[in-house]
Amino acid sequence: MRIIRNIAAVGAATALAVGGTVAFGATSASAAPNVTPQGVCGKAYKTVNSVPVGSLGTVYLTYNSANGKNCVATIRTNPGSAKPMSTYIYVPATDDWAGDDGNFTSYAGPGYVYGKGYCVSWGGSIANVYVSVDNSNCASLKEQRTTEIR
Fold first, then answer.
1. ∠11-126-104 over CA atoms, to 5°?
2. Is the dihedral of CA 123, 29, 43, 99 positive or negative?
3. Phi, psi (degrees; rounded to nearest 5) at 4
4. How many CB atoms within 10 Å of residue 95?
5. Is 142 in contact with 124 (CB distance < 8 Å)?
6. Distance CA 97, CA 95 (A)
7. Model confidence at 29: pLDDT above 60
């Protein structure tokens, strides 16, 4: 079973916060190379946005128009030994969020939320590189991207 950390919304921004833990059903992370966002989220999910996690990998935002859900996955460029990784998605308008956090060989995720008609904030990390995209994939607010090395 994977354990994820709570995601706290501070105003319009979101951040990963050390807080209470919530257990979600296990999703096994394969060590197979060439992992795709559709392989993690499902074939019906189309990639609508992405952000690089330095040179270590990419966080993908996908969307399924049939069910109105978004999915996020953080995928490493070079799978290998397990490293700390995370992925998260947050819908400020509904306060709904999902994510995944742990030591993985290939990817963190999937994280699913209903996002049809809403702005979403999302991001992830690999090792000590953290990225976030706030208020994206909506017309009403300008997207803000942040990369941080800790």
1. 120
2. negative
3. -120, 155
4. 8
5. no
6. 7
7. no
Q: How far is CA 31 from CA 2, 15, 76, 84, 104, in A?
A: 16, 28, 10, 14, 8
Residue 80 has pLDDT above 80, yes or no: yes
Q: Write the single-letter amino acid at 30.
A: S
Q: Where are the beta strands (DSSP E) in the chain?
A: 2-10, 13-24, 46-53, 57-64, 69-76, 83-91, 96-104, 107-114, 120-126, 129-136, 144-149
Residue-level pLDDT at 138: 84
Determine the pLDDT at residue 22.
Answer: 32
Give pLDDT tens digits for 41-68. 999 999 999 999 999 999 999 999 999 9
Q: Is the pTM of this model over 0.85?
A: no
Give the separation between CA 65 and CA 49, rounded to whole angstroms. Answer: 15
Question: Residues 6, 16: contact at Cβ < 8 Å?
Answer: no
Q: For residues 127 and 131, what is the distance between their CA atoms, to the nearest angstrom? A: 11
Share the mean pLDDT of the chain.
81
